[in-house]
């Protein structure tokens, strides 16, 4: 039996339907596009794998991928799995210091990157980074010189999948999974919504089904973009990958019309609201779309209603998930979510809570192995209950409803989810407090119709005689020097004194009481 290594799973499908279109990578009309069959994508991934192997990359190694959505992202990812190496998602919005931390923390031995991002990669501070392959540089020459054949050894279901996400300190951390576990927990297990396949060979049955065409707008550098892509590929579907540098609702719908996309995968209101507005113009009648999905940020009820009004009978799936738990469940309206069968809401003793009670959302069964290189964080997040079951604690607090659904109450780790990007308050606060005009600062998320939440700073100015002036523009510019743009506060509130709790911690409840009324006005 073949393993559940993701390359093995892809190869089963590629052999079953080699001539079927696997990937269309395209953006707005007129933008360059790539179109690959399953056989073509397999061959190019083989070439990537042979090239990397020639540079000394092997089982267990980590390879960074630093690029926007494009065909090469997926080619490199599959190529890594063919070698039993782990591709590492690198946020292309990171600045130099953030890139250095992530690539060093992940111990990446190689990097596949767009040439335009390489100036920010400080190789002199990354002694373990032995090889860089530049997309739009030497990438095509490297592939042309490499073999398209499969001559790789056996793989294992235990081979690594790693997904970098933020941590409670604000620094990104790698969540380490077994390939089999992430396939079942987040990638549909070859039978989305049903019982996962027991044998990879079962995936070959896709050859006898009409393929579904899913249009993916989420970035592949995030888990949600990767997961829907693999759900589609391991069931023999066609991935239409949006490659525009910015999301454009009109361009996305024109692409959907050209490719006959049936499912549009979006990221919260930030994408869904403009799509609904564009659909409402009546200018996009030649569509095959019958479903909308959202992951990475929740949809508001109003936006869901606008989507179904624009496409009567359309199915709208608002999906909940996390790097430490995979796909968690779907929204059922009124703020309620129905969790999957491997989930529970646990109390402080890791026992299930009853209806009306509150606890922490946890998953058992197919869960990650660890945080890469962080045993302390691993011990706190992946815990063993009194019955011997191992649980992953995502950090979401929830209240159980009597009908089996839950109402999410928020993250205990102070995450601001803004347009699908996760921003950790402590990281932004540290940067703000480093400004000589700032005495103290607290960062919270406030409601935003487009982004879900916006990063908002409550700031106490330094009133010393030598303190420089501080206003929103100056502080935002200061933050941009060391933080990716999406982490920079969009709104600043200046107060006489920042309040802290009796033990000296930032009083986030107070900060929200200051910031949220202004956000609603």
What is this structure's SSE topology?
Blueprint: H1 6-16, E1 21-26, E2 34-37, H2 38-54, E3 62-66, H3 71-82, E4 86-89, H4 96-105, E5 108-114, E6 131-135, H5 139-144, E7 160-165, E8 173-178, H6 179-186, E9 213-216, H7 223-233, E10 238-242, H8 249-259, E11 263-266, H9 268-280, E12 291-294, H10 301-310, E13 315-322, E14 326-333, E15 336-339, E16 343-346, E17 358-364, E18 370-371, H11 375-381, E19 382-384, E20 390-400, E21 406-411, E22 415-418, E23 421-424, H12 425-433, E24 438-448, E25 452-461, H13 472-480, E26 491-495, H14 508-520
Parallel strand pairs: 1-10, 3-4, 3-5, 5-6, 9-10, 9-11, 11-12, 12-13, 25-26
Antiparallel strand pairs: 1-2, 7-8, 8-18, 13-14, 14-15, 15-21, 16-17, 17-20, 19-20, 20-21, 22-23, 24-25
What does this structure look like?
- This protein is α/β, with parallel strands linked by helices and 521 residues long.
- The chain folds into 3 domains: 6-246, Rossmann fold (3-Layer(aba) Sandwich); 340-411, Luciferase, Domain 3 (Luciferase, domain 3, Roll), CATH 2.30.38.10; 415-520, ANL, C-terminal domain (GMP Synthetase, Chain A, domain 3, 2-Layer Sandwich), CATH 3.30.300.
- It is built from 14 helices and 26 strands.
- Strands 1, 2, 9, 10, 11, 12, 13, 14, 15, 16, 17, 19, 20 and 21 form a 14-stranded mixed β-sheet that branches. Strands 4-3-5-6 form a 4-stranded parallel β-sheet, with helices on both faces. The chain has a 3-stranded antiparallel β-sheet with strand order 7-8-18.
- Helix 9 packs parallel to helix 10.
- The radius of gyration is 23 Å and the shape is globular.
């Amino acid at each position: 039996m073949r393993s559940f290594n993701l390359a093995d799973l892809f190869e089963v499908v590629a052999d079953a339907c080699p001539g079927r279109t696997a990937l269309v990578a395209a953006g707005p009309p007129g933008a360059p596009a790539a179109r690959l069959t399953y056989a073509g994508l397999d061959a190019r991934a083989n070439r990537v794998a042979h090239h990397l192997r020639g540079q000394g990359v092997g089982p267990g190694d980590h390879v960074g991928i630093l690029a926007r959505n494009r065909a090469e992202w997926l080619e490199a990812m599959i190529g890594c799995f063919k070698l039993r190496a782990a591709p590492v998602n690198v946020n292309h919005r990171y600045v130099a210091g953030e890139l250095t931390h992530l690539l060093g923390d992940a111990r990446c031995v190689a990097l596949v990157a767009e040439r335009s991002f390489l100036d920010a990669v400080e190789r002199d501070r990354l002694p373990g980074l032995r090889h860089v392959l530049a997309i739009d540089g030497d990438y095509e020459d490297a592939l042309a010189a490499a073999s398209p054949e499969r001559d790789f050894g056996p793989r294992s279901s235990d081979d690594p999948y790693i997904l970098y996400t933020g941590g409670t300190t604000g620094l990104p951390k790698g969540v380490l999974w077994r390939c089999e576990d992430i396939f079942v927990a987040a990638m549909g297990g070859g039978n989305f919504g049903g019982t996962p396949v027991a044998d990879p060979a079962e995936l070959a049955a896709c050859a006898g089904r009409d393929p579904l065409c899913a249009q993916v707008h989420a970035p592949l550098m995030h888990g949600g973009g990767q997961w829907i892509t693999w759900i589609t590929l391991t069931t023999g579907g066609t991935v239409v990958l949006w490659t525009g540098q910015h999301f454009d609702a009109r361009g996305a719908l024109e692409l959907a019309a050209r490719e006959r996309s049936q499912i549009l995968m979006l990221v919260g209101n930030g994408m869904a609201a403009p799509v609904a507005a564009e659909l409402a113009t009546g200018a996009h009648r030649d569509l095959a779309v019958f479903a909308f999905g959202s992951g990475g940020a929740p949809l508001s009820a109003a936006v869901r209603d606008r989507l179904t009004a624009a496409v009567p009978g359309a199915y709208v799936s608002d999906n909940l998930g996390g790097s430490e738990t995979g796909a968690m469940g779907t929204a059922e309206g009124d703020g309620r979510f129905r969790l999957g069968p491997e989930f529970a809401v646990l109390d402080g003793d890791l026992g299930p809570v009853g209806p009306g009670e509150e606890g922490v959302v946890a998953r058992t069964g197919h869960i990650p192995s660890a945080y890469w290189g962080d045993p302390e964080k691993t011990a706190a997040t992946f815990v063993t209950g009194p019955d011997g079951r191992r649980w992953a604690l995502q950090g979401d607090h929830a209240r159980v409803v009597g009908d089996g659904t839950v109402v999410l109450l928020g993250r205990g780790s102070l995450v601001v989810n803004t347009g699908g990007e996760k921003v950790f308050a402590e990281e932004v606060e540290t940067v703000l407090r480093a400004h000589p005009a700032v005495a103290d600062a607290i960062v919270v998320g406030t409601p935003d119709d487009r982004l879900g939440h916006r990063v908002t700073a409550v700031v106490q100015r330094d009133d010393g005689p030598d303190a420089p002036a501080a206003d929103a523009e100056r502080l935002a510019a200061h933050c941009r020097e060391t933080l990716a743009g999406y982490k920079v506060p969009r709104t600043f509130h200046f107060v006489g004194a920042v309040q802290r709790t009796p033990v000296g911690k930032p009083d986030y409840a107070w900060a929200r009481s200051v910031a949220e009324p202004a956000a609603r006005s």
